[in-house]
Write a structure and sequence with these properties.
By secondary structure, this protein is mainly alpha-helical.
Length: about 290
Amino acid sequence: MFKPFDMTNEQTAIKTIYFSILGNTALAAIKWLTGYFGNSYALIADAIESTTDIFSSLLVLFGIKYSNRPADKNHPYGHGRAEPLITFLVVAFLVTSATIIAYESIQNIGTPHELPEPYTLLVLGVIIIWKEISYRLVIKRSKEINSSSLKADAWHHRSDALTSVAAFIGISIALIFGFESADDWAALFASVFILYNSYLIFRPALGEIMDEHLYDDVENSIREVAKKVNGIIDTEKCLIRKTGMKYHVDLHATVDANLSVREGHNIAHNLKDRLKMEMPEIADILIHIEPNE
């Protein structure tokens, strides 16, 4: 079931993004310093991703604030589509960081360098735990308020945690077996995983832009509410499009064919009022009345 939409949803999203920005800023600084002084390119690669996460989180923050602007003359359906567009920009940041990491990793694999310092493993262990906690918190919030851009931000935390795991493994192999390139191979693996996560974030946002039907649970709830309204015999078509954190719905409802136009009109209004009352996540709903044959 969906959490009803209210103004606190936007506030929740904004607070969650601020949490991400502050966390990523602190972790990026720790990774840069530890990677540089600890001779670990895998950790520096991790720092690059955390740095891009800061900027992508700022984009998400802008997208959430903009997408929740009310409808106006030029945007009768509201500004919600800004959210998946911002998600595309976030994916672009991820792909760019993955490309940079991969290029630098390949360059470093064939270049002799010092082994990483053992204390880098301790730092990575703490980072992995923190980023996984951050992922679980943000993904929970994204599901509660139906935010695709917040989900993208959550996957930033998960990809960061997994690149840190790759760095941890690479540094461990380098220290145990004296194979200094293991650190660089770990960074290269991390870049591939970041690209894979980019696709996982991109795909649902594309579906939202293309009005792909992804909302069976919302449709089922609409049909259940409609059955409670006097005069509604059944429902037929139910088309749903998501804009930001809300939905626009086209619904065909069946009524007695012998009713007057005014009676059918009143039933449609009663149905619309009931749906918007019980499902505040619906921004607007257009109801077409069908006669029961």
